[in-house]
């Protein structure tokens, strides 16, 4: 089991190295754009927040994996629940991003949907505050829970900490939150996919429509949403595996979360025109600089 743990620790370290520049690039570009234009789109804000949460989770996981033997059981439990909170925040922001794109792209002639389209931006801060505070207090209850033996399995040689969700009602509620957030991300994504397919059928015979800016924006959005859908389904599955399983599946679940973050970051960049153009400009400048030095 020591070899297995060391192998996955190395793989997680590699994923962190890959994840770091991509997320820093996303955050830096959006910050520079904000200072330049004094405004930031809601989609850019959500993508930046997801990138920040991904980075924090990656660093926290690396810290726990390499220094777990120096941390007491109580502090390890707190750090583990903080990591769980960061994953939950990532899924929440992904769900809100999926809903935001759905409201922008898909038009449904229904009173409630139209009202939601008009009021989503105003409701957004309250939705964020409500969900984040709810998740925070659930994790706080788990931290303060006196039944430490339920959370900490000191007899396990597989991992220094083993969550037993069936021993804590708050963990079960947290998992229910994960299910709700994943559903909120999946349903709008599927609606967007169906809407895009119908739209492509309507413009199938129009050669000009396929290259229109509106169509390109839809395609960029669908790339981002599809990556969110796949990443969050894998993340949701990985969280359940990490809570209820042990051994190989326990380590595999943590590795899958990191891989999902890498793919979502890649599609964030490729699916957002501003990020993609900035990256192409940087790569072009690097290639020109390299050619001049040859």
Q: How is this structure best described in words?
A:
The chain crosses the membrane at residues 12-33, 45-68, 80-103, 123-144, 169-197, 218-244, 250-269. It is found in: Membrane. Keywords: G-protein coupled receptor, Membrane, Receptor, Sensory transduction, Taste, Transducer, Transmembrane, Transmembrane helix. The chain has 294 residues and is mostly helical. The protein has a single domain, classed as Rhopdopsin 7-helix transmembrane proteins (Up-down Bundle), CATH 1.20.1070. It has nine helices and no strands. The relative contact order is 0.13.
Short description, anyone?
The chain is mainly α. 83% of the residues lie in helices and 0% in strands.
Text of the CATH class: Mainly Alpha
Number of domains: 1
Number of strands: 0
CATH topology: Rhopdopsin 7-helix transmembrane proteins
Shape: globular
Number of helices: 9
Based on CA atoms alone, the radius of gyration comes out at 21 Å
What's the main sheet like?
none
Structural class: mainly alpha
List the helices and strands and how they pair.
Layout: H1 2-37, H2 42-67, H3 73-105, H4 111-144, H5 148-151, H6 169-202, H7 213-244, H8 248-271, H9 273-293
Subcellular location: Membrane
Family: Belongs to the G-protein coupled receptor T2R family.
Membrane topology: Multi-pass membrane protein
Annotation keywords:
single chain; 294 residues; mainly alpha; Rhopdopsin 7-helix transmembrane proteins; globular
């Amino acid at each position: 089991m020591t070899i297995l743990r060391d192998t996955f620790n190395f793989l997680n370290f590699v994923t962190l190295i890959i994840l770091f520049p991509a997320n820093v690039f996303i955050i830096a570009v959006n910050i520079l754009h904000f200072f330049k234009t004094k405004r930031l789109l809601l989609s850019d804000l959500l993508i930046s927040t997801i990138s920040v949460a991904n980075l924090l989770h990656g660093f926290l996981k690396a810290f726990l994996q390499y220094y777990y033997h120096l941390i007491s059981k109580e502090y390890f439990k707190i750090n583990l629940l903080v990591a769980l909170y960061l994953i939950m925040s990532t899924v929440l922001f992904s769900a809100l991003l999926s809903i935001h794109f759905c409201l922008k792209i898909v038009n449904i002639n229904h009173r409630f949907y139209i009202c939601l389209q008009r009021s989503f931006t105003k409701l957004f801060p309250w939705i964020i505050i409500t969900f984040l505070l709810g998740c925070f207090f659930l994790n706080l209850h788990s931290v303060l829970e006196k039944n430490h033996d339920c959370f900490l399995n000191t007899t396990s040689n597989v991992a220094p900490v083993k969550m037993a969700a069936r021993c804590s009602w708050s963990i079960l509620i947290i998992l229910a939150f994960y299910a709700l957030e994943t559903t909120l991300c999946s349903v709008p994504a599927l609606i967007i996919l169906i809407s895009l397919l119908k739209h492509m059928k309507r413009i199938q015979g129009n050669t000009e429509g396929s290259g229109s800016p509106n169509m390109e924006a839809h395609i960029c959005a669908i790339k981002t949403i599809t990556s969110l859908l796949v990443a969050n389904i894998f993340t949701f599955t990985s969280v359940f595996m990490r809570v209820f399983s042990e051994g190989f599946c326990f380590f595999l679940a943590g590795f899958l979360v990191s891989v999902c973050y890498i793919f979502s970051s890649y599609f964030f960049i490729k699916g957002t025109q501003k990020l993609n153009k900035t990256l192409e400009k940087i790569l072009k400048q690097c290639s020109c600089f390299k050619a001049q030095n040859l």
